[in-house]
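CORE FACILITY INTAKE
Project code: CF-77B
Contact: R.S. (postdoc)
Sample description: multi-component assembly, two entities in total
Requested service: structural model of the whole complex
Turnaround: standard
Below are the sequence entries exactly as provided by the requester. Do not edit them.
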Amino acid sequence: MTGAEPGLMPSQVLSANRPDCDFPLNNLPYGVFSDDRGPRCGVAIGDRILDLAACEAQGLLDAGGTFAAPRMNDFIARGPDAWAAARARLTALLSPDGPRDLPLVAMAGARLHLPIRVEGFTDFYASRHHAFNVGCLFRGPDNALPPQWDHMPIGYNGRASSVVVSGTPVHRPMGQVAGPAGPEWTASRRLDLELELGAIVGAATALGTRITVDQAEDMIFGHVLLNDWSARDIQAWEYQPLGPFQGKAFATTISPWIVTRAALEPFRRVGAARTVDPMPHLRDSRPGFHDLAMGWTLNGQVMARVNYAVMHWSQAQALAHHASSGCPMNVGDLLGSGTISGPTPDQTGALLEMTRNGQQPVTVNGQPRTFLQDGDEVGLFAHAQGAGYRVGFGPCTGRVMPALP
Amino acid sequence: MTGAEPGLMPSQVLSANRPDCDFPLNNLPYGVFSDDRGPRCGVAIGDRILDLAACEAQGLLDAGGTFAAPRMNDFIARGPDAWAAARARLTALLSPDGPRDLPLVAMAGARLHLPIRVEGFTDFYASRHHAFNVGCLFRGPDNALPPQWDHMPIGYNGRASSVVVSGTPVHRPMGQVAGPAGPEWTASRRLDLELELGAIVGAATALGTRITVDQAEDMIFGHVLLNDWSARDIQAWEYQPLGPFQGKAFATTISPWIVTRAALEPFRRVGAARTVDPMPHLRDSRPGFHDLAMGWTLNGQVMARVNYAVMHWSQAQALAHHASSGCPMNVGDLLGSGTISGPTPDQTGALLEMTRNGQQPVTVNGQPRTFLQDGDEVGLFAHAQGAGYRVGFGPCTGRVMPALP
């Protein structure tokens, strides 16, 4: 694939040709949808979804029947050659010269589902700004960054079972928190979001196998937006010495559309400058990041804007490190980038940083605010800007519901 | 179920009636095996395996066809009534009065497989002795136990993809470790084992649902032995602040036979005395532990013996805590107890504790030893002792292989 930015590729679906549309022909993100019929795979084009199961049934393309499944895993497991062939075929079908009788469904009338069966969820900590900001809050500026931070992409295993699709209500969790008279059992009082990019692993590795960063890059099928909801008070009480657990296990929201690595290839770029040369197993030969304008909203108000390329460790480096012990990776593994934050408060991907752990309230719709309240709706957004078009992710939203008794 | 210890229940399989046999009729542990035909479910009886797929095909019992699967998950998902019905039927079939033409396979000629598809792997830290011993090594006796230790079963998400069955070779992992001149990329020099009991979750909970400890108890299908292999030098460099990652991701070995909760019910007992009254969501109404004589061997030499009831937090309490944030639990989730250690070195479940982090070598086959060497074979064992019989787990072994280049 070339890094040249091709300009808008026009589609026969005219809504895809608008400069502010997240889903032009250049994008072709995959997802799972249902309408009067059950969940099956589709691709977003403008304000429509191309029914890939119907396309296969009509002989318009061939993916071995995998598009009829209610998850993308079976298609993804077919491998990079199949990904490239499907993209080329879909590009032809949806071009102005493509057939006119395509099985297109109005996105507005469809329900979007979790696009993959999440085999494993691992979250990293790859923004140096985020790691430093949070480290200062809890350990002070002299000990903000752990000594290994510049030498490896620090990560931890999350909980795959609580990964949900955009739009799923998120109930405030109950849990143990530190109190003045000892621990309390309470609804979290410090509910937060985390703006992240997720990588979906598209190839498996065997037990005992290591991979290079370049091999890891080729194993990534695509990306989603990811909100790693966090209960800071539960997390603070539980996380030493074995890491976050119930403070992050109640929900992780991802966007319904998987933007493929192929679609983002023209927007590849280098990340933050390094002060330490990576060890050999973490060295890469091409820019590991993408020029993505990202941010998040609270009840419709934009709270922060940041570029993904502010990150220090790429998702390919994270994947190579994940496999470095010989840990098997699977198709459908989801890797979170960790909170994406820049140096200033208006570039931070979490209220923990933005409000300095609640000490400096921000203003939301005219009211002072520290952490999330019941009824709040959080939205993540991201797109790569081309000349007269964009490759976008669509919405990744979640509304906070009261704790369940 | 009654807590009364029934004495040996004789079987028509005479090898099951020996007092030192791990698999009498009282036990009936489930597993997955293959011979000249492919993997299917079976139950261990003496030195034989009853082919449950064949039993179903012959109309000897009915489990909805789930015993023909290469994993136990489908049967387990049928629920507690199905578990009880199958156990009653198997008890009748294998009794001296049962049919003589049962499809029995010699265990010696069968290959044993991973008995479940591991949906999620979570490891806890439920031995107060282990937590204190390890805490003293890394943080000193004054800060050995984290402040929340007595208030919750501390746990972390492990990596499900590297759970392997007994007998699978374990390659020494490569990884980053701290060195005198900064971090090094090396084969681990401090490879260790962890003696644990695993619990297999047999019922699912929905997102946002909490459960009581008594409900959690009823959700546990059975138990396995679990060796949570650990590279202490990789772990020490990586684990702050987000917990263990590649230092434990390379392999976790479990025993091939799932000893059901029903089989262990007569051996139920209370655990270690508590100094802190658990919060309501962690309170139980019945003894949460079992009288299990456990231990581990290195190259055939018994290194430690300990009783499981030395533990502080039960696996039902761990499960209730795991779901306490609303985290969904799934059939096939595997929960590790954490290292099972008593107060003295000859009761410790890891070399880290036994050798005081390598400072006090132990003698193995006449040679001083700190951590595991290539070629070492580690074996875990456990059984509940009845009057003239035992309910055992069979072997859980793994041999250390050299690091892969």
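Facility notes:
- The first strand of chain A starts at residue 30 and ends at 34.
- Chain A touches chain B through 61 residues (CB under 8 Å).
Invoice: internal transfer
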